[in-house]
Amino acid sequence: MVMHEIKLSLCFQIVSLLVGMMFTIVCHAGEYKLVRGQQFELCREFEKNLNTFKDEPPMVCERKINPEFKDFTMPKWKALEPKENMDVLEKIIRYRSKNQTVEVQDKKWKTVKNRINKGKVRLWRGYFDIDHNGKREVVWKLNAYGCDPNDEASFGWPSTFALSIVDENKRIMDKQYQYRVLHPLSFDVFLYKGRTYLINWRGRLGFENGHISVYEPFNVLEQMGIQNRPICRYEYMN
């Protein structure tokens, strides 16, 4: 009788595990629907690219490129050691919090500094024309807070990636670029037919109103200082 109950309990646990796995897969399955920019070839082709990954978790952290779509590429990034670049990273973190108090900036930098010392911060460098002015810039991509697609608290603001234009000789960031092109939002970047575009994920908990947006950057200062023209938007349907 006891052995029979043990077998039933074991069977119940196995079934529960399988159901849980199926539920997880179902929860992660979803597709991307183009709701803005249907007139642009870029937007239509990127929708096809996104939906080759519809059986994977939503792209809240990084956007993927299917190698079958030859017109889409990613910049060539080289990993940098954050501990060797803490002087510039402090400037980046403080600038991204420039509208907050010094105390808040101090707290944020302390958090990032601790993460750097624990090896939890990632940093890359790339060379490409980020604002379509015909010149290549030195672009740093920073992931200071980590990102886990299964932990919604980790992929919201201020996580994912922060892009900065850096003068590595002077050890400073170009604030004009931050103001004009990158703004304080979290962006990643990809290229379509060699031209740079910015991209990010926005949404609420439970992936409610989750969407991916693609922006075309410009190098001309506008009244509000935001130089990213939104051209594509994809709603995540799960």
Major beta-sheet overview: 6 strands, antiparallel
Number of helix segments?
5
Q: Structural class of the helices, strands and pairings?
A: alpha+beta
Question: How many angstroms does the end-to-end distance come to?
Answer: 45 Å
- Tally the beta strands: 11
Outline the structure in words.
By secondary structure, this protein is an alpha+beta fold. It has one domain (30-237). 30% of the residues lie in helices and 26% in strands. The protein contains 5 helices and 11 strands; from the N terminus they run αβαββααββββαββββ. It has helices spanning 2-28, 41-50, 86-95, 102-117, 175-182, and strands at residues 31-36, 72-73, 78-80, 122-128, 137-143, 162-167, 172-173, 188-192, 195-202, 211-217, 228-237. The strands form 2 sheets. The protein has a 6-stranded antiparallel β-sheet with strand order 1-11-10-9-8-2. It has a 5-stranded antiparallel β-sheet with strand order 3-4-5-6-7, sandwiched between helices. Helix 3 packs antiparallel against helix 4. It is globular and about 45 Å long. The termini are far apart. Residues 1-27 and 222-226 have low confidence and may be disordered.
